[in-house]
Each structure stands twice: as structure tokens, then as C-alpha cells.
């Protein structure tokens, strides 16, 4: 394994650090030994995959149809793999998409022992299927799983399973007649042992599904099919409309698990997000502490472009140091591309910054744009932020987006959809699977 597989070690407290190392050593020793040991238990092994074709396939919905907007329509197959503390990982299965079977006492239903990933696969304009930087997602899922005591795995094996699902369902669900489209992939792991008790999971299930998703990165993209009031109003004021959180609401905190993609990070935020939507906003802009440090926008990373008082042009986003925000794949890609392709005109900064700095920049005409990044939202420009009773209007020099959001979005889309040959775009060869 590459050294990046050891990323879970770089966690929070000494106690957590030690516990994660123990999980890795016990459940997937090859990750620790860089593949130079003979595992004493069964590790995740994509080569053992068992195929069962779906004999009752579903129809593929039209892009952006009401059915797609339900975000519940999945492709014909899914991948599943069982794990136990005594036997390790069983053989994975590619099988028809359908319900899971859980006992009411399953750990995941009581103790939030669940983690997941979100990535997309794309039908390129060259008609090839691609994943975008899947190694980043599989490494991050290893981080998340071990943070909540779920079993470890070789990230490369998880990627192979993801690629198999894409190869099998890609031809039908992203037909070559629809270049420039995508499906959303959701690898998930849950603890399934049928016993109550606050303890490390003894059984787990890994599963991977592909879901039809709408595009959220267009003006009014959170609105849904045409006719929605928010979508109509967004034509007059494009971009996301954010509500800054107050001091009495906290999404994540130093020393916690905000950096891990676990269900416990999302459930508690839904009530605030729902109330924000009821008040006409798209997302909550999460602030932290008395200084109102800017962290994330909903479940997305957040960027601003401003000029400093000295006239420097900067792209600024919150740092990863305190483990408060997610190490987003789109976030990382934006930063790397900006340094590579825009470094001559933009200073790229990862640091703590406050909402007061954003407010001052807006009032002084130094705030040039803001945008959110993530797998679902891709790069979505922000049109306004409501902070302490005041609406901050965010400029959009390109009409529906800011200049740098548009540039970065174009660069990334070109890689994702095959207009640019790049190592981040991983081509998957579609194939048929025998029953």
C-alpha cells in the first residue's frame, strides 16, 4: 500500500490515534505493513467477487426528470460484502439492487456506526466512462470507517469494486447517446451485529450503489424541476443563498469527527438546514466560536475570492488542521488546480478566517466572489449571505457565476468529461457480466 493509506493515524487525540492504529493492525494488517505481510484473517479482496445478474432490470429515467429529483432511483445492481470480527471479509457480491436485511438491534440503528462516500462517474464527450480521483474517496472512507470502529480495508480493493459496478451498469445507465451526464456513487459501511450494547462492532456490511442525481450547480439548482418558486426567483438573483449560523448552533468542533464522512455529522444538522430552507435559503453557512470562524456551507466546502487591504488577490478557504471540515475531493482539486494554473494572479490561502472579514470585504468592495464545492454541488456560486440581520450581496462578474469559479469549474469538468486527458480522470471499460 502507498503511505497515504496510513492517513487515519493522523487523527485527533492520542486515545483515538491509538485505537485507529489497533483497528488497522487487527482488521487489515497489510495496510500497516505496506503489503509485506501475510494476513491472518480475510481481507477485502475484489478478485473474489461473485456475480448475480439482475433479471428484472429497471427503466432508465430521463435526465432532470421528477424521478431523478427524488434521488432514490438506483441502477440495476449493487455491490455488497460482509465482515465479521472472527472471519474478516467474506467474498463480495455484485447483485441486483434491492433491500437490505437488518435486525432491529443492529448497531447502526442505535449507535451511528455508519460511514459513506460520495463520488460520481461520468459519460465523457469522448463517450468513455470515467471516475474522478477515486483514490481520494477510498482513502477517505478508510479514515471514516476506522474513526467509528468499523473494520479497515485496502482502499485499492474498494476502488476495484466501485469500478466493477461502473463497468457493469455504465453502458445502460449512462448511455453513449447522453454524453456529458453522470451518476452518483454511494459506497457505505454499516455495523450490523444483532445485539445492543455500546461496543466496537463485531459485524459490518459494505455496500456500493449508483443513484440518478440532478445537477445542483446551476442557478436555482437546489429547486428541483421547473415551476418551483425558488427556481423562478433565482433568475433575478442567481447563486446560492446562505444563512450564516448563530453562536448557539455548532456543526463540528476541534477534536471531534467533523473531518470524517459519518452519518453522525449530518443528522444533527438537518433541523437547522430544514429551517433555513423554510426561510428561503439554500444552505446554512456554518460558523464556529465567538469569532465566527467560517467553516462549511451546508455539507460543502466554502471559498471566497477577495482583495486584501494591500491589494493582493486571494482565494481563501478554511484549513484542515483542526479536523473540523471535510477534506473534500473537489476542494482539494480546486486548490491544486488554482495553484498550478492561476498561481500567477491568485494567492491561494488555507487559513482560519472570520465572517467579520467577509463582511468587511463586502462593505469595502473587496469581496469579488464566493462559491461552495462538493461532489453533489460541484462548484456552485454563492449570491448572498445573511449574517446577523444583514444581507451581504456577493458579486458575480460572469452573470450567474464569478470569474474564478467559472474558470476552475471548466478545468475540472474538462477532466471529468474527457475533454482534457488528465491523471485524475480514471477511464473504466464497460463490460457485460454473465449470469
TrEMBL record:
Pfam families: Aminotran_4. Keywords: Amino-acid biosynthesis, Aminotransferase, Branched-chain amino acid biosynthesis, Pyridoxal phosphate, Transferase. InterPro entries: Aminotrans_IV (IPR001544), Aminotrans_IV_CS (IPR018300), Aminotransferase-like (IPR036038), B_amino_transII (IPR005786), BCAT-like_C (IPR043132), BCAT-like_N (IPR043131), BCAT_family (IPR033939). The keyword Phosphoprotein does not apply. The modification N6-(pyridoxal phosphate)lysine is found at residue 261. It catalyses: L-isoleucine + 2-oxoglutarate = (S)-3-methyl-2-oxopentanoate + L-glutamate; L-leucine + 2-oxoglutarate = 4-methyl-2-oxopentanoate + L-glutamate; L-valine + 2-oxoglutarate = 3-methyl-2-oxobutanoate + L-glutamate. It comes from the Eukaryota. The keyword Repeat does not apply. GO terms for molecular function: branched-chain-amino-acid transaminase activity. Its cofactor is pyridoxal 5'-phosphate. GO terms for cellular component: mitochondrion. Its EC number is 2.6.1.42. GO terms for biological process: L-leucine biosynthetic process; L-valine biosynthetic process. Belongs to the class-IV pyridoxal-phosphate-dependent aminotransferase family. PANTHER family: BRANCHED-CHAIN-AMINO-ACID AMINOTRANSFERASE (PTHR11825:SF69), SUBGROUP IIII AMINOTRANSFERASE (PTHR11825). This is Branched-chain-amino-acid aminotransferase. It comes from Alectoria fallacina. The lineage of its organism: Eukaryota, Fungi, Dikarya, Ascomycota, Pezizomycotina.
